């Protein structure tokens, strides 16, 4: 049955309005977008399935495959899905943060210009901290700090794709971080086979005196032999670090100390995995920089969504302009800069709020613009103790050789009021 009359849904403000944005009620006509914007993310993942090329290594046998850090071997669907998981994870943390911090950005607009890098850095550190404590029910290599490193690896690959597509703007910091990841990739140490892995259990002295090494040593010069032993030691240290990261996190040496590893019982797959973790860890700070930019990329989507739907609008649009304007923190004449309704008037055009004015600078007689200003005793004591700021406007006038002769009070830096009086007198003089 059709209802006799249509009743418009209630329109809310504040927390109730925000709750409706986070969990919208169905309106009966079209599906409402959820706060994680999953539908858009699924569409984006589908588009990337056609943009990303499947890795050439997927046709290689596992034993012959050399999987480098920041170059996951998978088909296009898997790589696009991994990118979607990274973005969904970021949105999950962002949603939690935005719900908790609503009282802040409901007053100060959620623009990156207002919060700088502090906001994305905080969320990035929160994500890494919580991921380090994530464990699975069954023992796994893919939890705790190992999961953090693998997640950051996919973050780097995602940022690379989005910068190539122009979705994330390149700058020196992004390019430097990506270059560091490329360098770590080039310096990755690959374990060839089980025989090479078993040699890591021998010390350099034992290797040099063991009969099994004679045939290899005889094929090398002394310098080549020393370099070969150094490479084995480097591989041993790299894999040991990776095992420690997987077992106990970045501070693994405090837990395990110099406890030896049973190299004979370690599989080639686990050794390669450990070496990969060590390579990613070597550029972990660069990966966090890329994570910050990916968080900002997702944050901008929420900023756009909240700007469109939040009611009422935030009080402050720009904190920098607000400080020198509508905050009232300065002395003398005030302006209303920084307010949302002043900077972005409803409906466009000119704001209904009077913008205000700025103090003139001192006149030629050096009379200070704040002379005779009225200040209460509390404000006066605060100024004596902490000082204060005030804004002033002025003009700089340069006299031309063939131009009008300027009076002394107009040359150089002059007050706007005196300049206006000069223009007024000049017009009268020219008319006469």
Give a brief rundown of this model.
With 432 residues, the chain is mostly helical. It has helices at residues 14-22, 38-51, 76-100, 102-105, 112-115, 118-132, 144-164, 172-186, 194-198, 204-209, 214-217, 222-248, 252-256, 268-281, 284-309, 319-324, 340-343, 377-386, 416-431, and strands spanning 359-360, 392-393, 395-397, 412-414. Helix content is 53%, strand content 2%.
Write the layout of secondary structure elements.
Elements: H1 14-22, H2 38-51, H3 76-100, H4 102-105, H5 112-115, H6 118-132, H7 144-164, H8 172-186, H9 194-198, H10 204-209, H11 214-217, H12 222-248, H13 252-256, H14 268-281, H15 284-309, H16 319-324, H17 340-343, E1 359-360, H18 377-386, E2 392-393, E3 395-397, E4 412-414, H19 416-431
Parallel strand pairs: 1-2
Antiparallel strand pairs: 3-4
Helix pairs in contact: 2-3, 3-15, 6-15, 7-15, 8-15, 12-14
Helix content: 40-55%
Output the number of helix runs. 19
User: How many strands, which pairing sense, and closed or not: the largest β-sheet?
Assistant: 2 strands, parallel
Cα-based radius of gyration, to the nearest Å: 33 Å
Strand content: under 5%
Number of domains: 3
Largest sheet: spatial strand order: 1-2
Q: Which assembly state applies to the chains in this document?
A: single chain
Question: What form results from the Cα inertia axes?
Answer: extended
Structure commentary:
By secondary structure, the chain is an all-alpha fold. It has three domains: 1-165 and 287-313, no CATH class; 188-281, no CATH class; 314-431, no CATH class. The protein is built from 19 helices and four strands. It has helices at residues 14-22, 38-51, 76-100, 102-105, 112-115, 118-132, 144-164, 172-186, 194-198, 204-209, 214-217, 222-248, 252-256, 268-281, 284-309, 319-324, 340-343, 377-386, 416-431, and strands at 359-360, 392-393, 395-397, 412-414. A two-stranded parallel ribbon has the order 1-2. Helix 18 links the parallel strand 1 (359-360) and strand 2. Helix 12 packs across helix 14. The protein is extended, with a radius of gyration of 33 Å. The mean pLDDT is 86.
């Amino acid at each position: 049955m059709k209802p006799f009359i249509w009743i418009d849904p209630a329109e809310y403000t504040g927390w109730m309005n925000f709750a409706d944005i986070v969990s919208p009620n169905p309106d009966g006509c079209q599906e409402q977008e959820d706060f994680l914007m999953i539908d858009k993310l699924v569409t984006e993942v589908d588009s990337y399935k056609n943009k990303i090329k499947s890795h050439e290594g997927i046709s290689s046998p596992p034993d012959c495959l050399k999987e480098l850090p920041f170059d996951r071997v998978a088909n296009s669907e898997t790589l696009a899905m991994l990118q979607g998981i990274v973005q969904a994870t970021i949105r999950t943390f962002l949603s939690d943060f935005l719900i908790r911090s609503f009282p802040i950005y409901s007053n100060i607009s959620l623009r990156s210009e207002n919060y700088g890098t502090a906001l994305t850095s905080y969320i990035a550190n929160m994500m890494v901290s919580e991921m380090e404590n994530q464990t699975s029910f069954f023992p796994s290599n893919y939890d705790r700090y190992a999961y953090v490193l693998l997640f950051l690896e996919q973050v780097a690959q995602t940022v690379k794709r989005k910068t190539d597509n122009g979705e994330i703007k390149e700058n020196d910091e992004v390019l430097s971080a990506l270059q560091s990841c490329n360098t770590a990739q080039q310096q990755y140490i690959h374990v060839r086979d089980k025989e090479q892995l078993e040699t890591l259990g021998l010390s350099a002295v034992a290797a040099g005196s063991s009969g099994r090494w004679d045939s290899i040593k005889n094929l090398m010069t002394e310098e080549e032999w020393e370099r070969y032993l150094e490479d084995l030691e480097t591989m041993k240290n790299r894999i040991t670090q990776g095992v420690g990261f997987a077992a106990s996190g970045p501070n693994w040496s405090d837990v395990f100390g110099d406890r030896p590893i049973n190299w004979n019982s370690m599989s080639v797959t686990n050794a390669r995995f450990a070496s990969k973790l060590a390579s990613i860890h070597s550029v972990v700070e660069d990966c966090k920089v890329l994570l910050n930019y990916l968080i900002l990329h997702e944050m901008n989507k929420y900023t756009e969504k909240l700007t469109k739907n939040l009611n009422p609008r935030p009080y402050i649009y720009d904190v920098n302009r607000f400080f020198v304007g509508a905050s009232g923190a300065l002395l003398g004449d005030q302006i209303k800069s920084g307010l949302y309704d002043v900077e972005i008037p409803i409906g466009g055009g000119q704001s209904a709020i009077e913008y205000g004015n700025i103090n003139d600078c001192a006149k030629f007689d050096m009379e200070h613009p704040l002379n005779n200003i009225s200040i209460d005793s509390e404000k006066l004591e605060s100024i004596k103790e902490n000082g204060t700021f005030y804004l002033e406007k002025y003009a700089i006038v340069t006299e031309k050789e063939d131009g009008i002769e300027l009076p002394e009070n107009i040359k150089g830096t002059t007050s706007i009021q005196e300049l206006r009086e000069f223009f007024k007198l000049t017009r009268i003089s020219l008319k006469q």
